[in-house]
Amino acid sequence: MNGEDNCINIECLKLVNSNFQKFLDIHSTNYHIELKKSLEEIGLFFDLDRIYIYYFSKDPTFMQIECQWNRKEVRPKREFNEEEVVYALPWLIRKIKNSNDVVINSINEIPDEAVSEIEAFSKEGVKSFLIIPLKSENKLIGFIGYESLLKSIVWKEGQIRILGDISKAFSHTKARIEKEKVYEKDINGQSILLNNSESQIWALSNVTSYATANEAHAKFFGKTKSDLEYQDLYDIFDIDTANKLSKSNWELFQKGEPAEKELEIKNFKGENRLLKIKSRPQRDDKGNIQYLICTANDITEQRLAEKELYKAKEQAEAANTAKSRFLANMSHEIRTPMNGIFGFLELLQATNLSLEQKEFIREAKSASEILLHIINDILDFSKIEAKKLTMEKIKFNLRNSIEDAVSLLAPKAAEKNLELYTMINPNVPEEVIGDPSRLRQVLNNLISNAVKFTSKGEISVKVDCLKEENKIAFLNFEVKDTGIGIRKEHINTIFKSFSQADASTTRKYGGTGLGLAISSELVKMMGGKIQVESIVGEGSTFKFDVKLKIVKGASVQKFDFEKLRGMNVLVVDDNDNNRKIVVSYLQETGLMVFEAKNAAAAITTIISKANTKNKINTAIIDYQMTDMSAYELATTLKTMPFAKDVKLILLASVNQKGETKSSKEYGFSCYLGKPVKRDDLLNCIAMVLGLKKEDEEKCEVVTKHIVREVKNELKPKILLVEDNVMNRKIVINILKLHDMTCDVAVNGSEALKAVSEKDYDVVFMDCQMPVMDGYECTAKIRILEGDKKHTTIIAMTANAMEGDSEKCIEAGMDAYISKPINFDTMFKMIEANTKKRELVPDYNKIIDDNIDCFVETTGLEKADAREILEEYTRCLPDLLADINRAIDDKDFDKLAGVTHELKGSSGTLRIMSIHELAIKLEAAAFKHEEDECGRLFAEIKALFY
Hints:
CATH superfamily of the largest domain: GAF domain
Mean pLDDT: 82
Low-confidence stretches: 1-7, 501-508, 693-713
CATH class of the largest domain: Alpha Beta
Radius of gyration: 51 Å
CATH topology of the largest domain: Beta-Lactamase
Number of helices: 30
Oligomer: single chain
Structural class: alpha/beta
């Protein structure tokens, strides 16, 4: 038996060896044929009835027979080779997945839990079977089954081991063939891609040797792939081409990293072509460059197109520059005469005119403003088209900017008896960073249109902060009117250039049709969009949103309203919106606020709360209400004992600004113009209720609708630098109307000399002048002054194109005002820059004003008279100081005595101006009239300035 076993073992080893040898180099083309032969050889050798190999599919829940063998008298395992569900045999698959051989000597050995397996094997008539898992790289890929159907078999350990070893040959071969298929597929795919690519691709093994190349690269030189692969450059190309390529290759190899370069080289037709080459080194395990992979594209036509495009761009830029220069010159040429028109109209309006002449002036100014608006629209549109319009990024008070924009249109709204009001929600930030002038421009366009197209009713401007995110405020603006509205079919066209609702709109209302187009572009530049909702005959609502950066820590309230706890304010206005706005602003302060819709309701409220903790302390009253006027209500309240102490504030439209004096006579402490500004309202309330310091509170009627003039006592020192005679005349006369004077220079050279000799508060500098322009002059002034001082220089020019303001600032100017000059702005600039000089009394003025009268009265020589008066003026400072202290100390006896001395000395010397005031001051001192004493002493002091 031993000898027989040895023979079997030798035969088994031969069987294993032959299978390993066979499958070591087997090709995919004859794989299945050889595999089936091996299965038959194994089956006959081990006297088996059936062998089969299953491999799992890509979806591991399915499997499929790869190959099977069976004896002639035995049915095959499967009649059809198709995918089967794995978990039809759950017990068997679990065992296989646990890397276990499944050895069944008899069908009865299958455990009861393997219901599906018992059924399947019994149905097929299987008596014994052996299942061996198939693996590749320790991953289960399938299994091989050995079965006996004619008789039971006891599987021996040696037999199982040999069959397991043979099975490994099958699994390894299967894995190898699959990899070869994938690799071949990749290679074929890559070859297709490489050879059909328009880009040239090649690999270099060194500076002068190809490893491989695609068809595109070979075709460029009139070669084939085989002509290039594994060949030396100098064996393929002429010397010039080989030299150029080797030099280029050397540079790319030297970089040792991904690189790109351009190479001009001849193709097979002898044409010079420009190649853009990109290279990437491929390294071996030691980090050495094994290959340099290169790609190239022919960019000859592209570069020619770029040159043509660049030439076209230069021509377009030259044309754009010419256009911009033309616009700048046109702007300058138009604005210069416009400045003259505005200026002389302003001067003419200040003269004595008949009512008819005043009407003519008003119409002329209105027409001039329309013309200027059209010019500005055209210039802005041109800047937008040329992409020259940019946004400033400066810190500004958002509320003030909005309210100023609304206030600008308030007079026009008032002329049409339209209610114009502003509602800014409390969540809107106080200070932001952005372009205030462009934001105002959008608001002005929308509000101006609302006023233009509304004949009755009201216009509202509402502002809300939708959200805050990363210190950015998302703001929503809404301008609503009760005007003519816009037809639905025209809504989509109104934001287009030179478009209005229809031709009749242009005929009736005028305009360029650019305002909304410009506004739309500006809103886009501020990170938002604009839209409109409208109903014909009912009105329109324009909405736009912008994004602005928030400045944190901006103060809101200037006054401590906590001190006014218990104070009650009544708001009387028949317009619900105006009343609600004033109430909302006051509620921010914490004051108790009550409302009344008319005068009758106001009287009822004041009476009903007279003897309660809610007694009304202050009433804000609209100028004109349905039942009576503010003056009539004020008169009525003053007759009521419990209401005569109520502080009154007048709320009036801008066309009622002449009521200042009358309102004071009727007992109003303050006057506020509509639309109401929050800060003005709070300032007024603070003054009326005593939150301001005593020396700040003048108890005078306050108006925000008259031109703010620079206080005369500040005596601003102004230099006007202007070469245009007309412009000089206008500015000089406008200043004269406000009791101011200025020095004049007609060019930069004269201005430089004037500034070097005199200390000016402000210099208004024209930019375009002969001899020396404003830019050069400013630069020289800055060099002249150095760090010692800084004279405020304000550019005053007719230029209004993009970059003009920047050019002025770069030259060293402090601010910019364009022509036609806005004189309100000019006076604000003067006021802001006028140095607060302490007024020094000039006692010699008394001598100069009175010496002739003294000589004539006394008959003294002028020299003797001067000597006597000089002695008098030396005593005056002490005498006046004593009077001042007596008034401060309320020491009326001392005041009467000192004043009596002043009265006597001034009377003796015939200084009647002082003498007459001293008489009145002495009388007031005897009567203990403190306010009158202060007023008279102020008049005496004014005589010395």
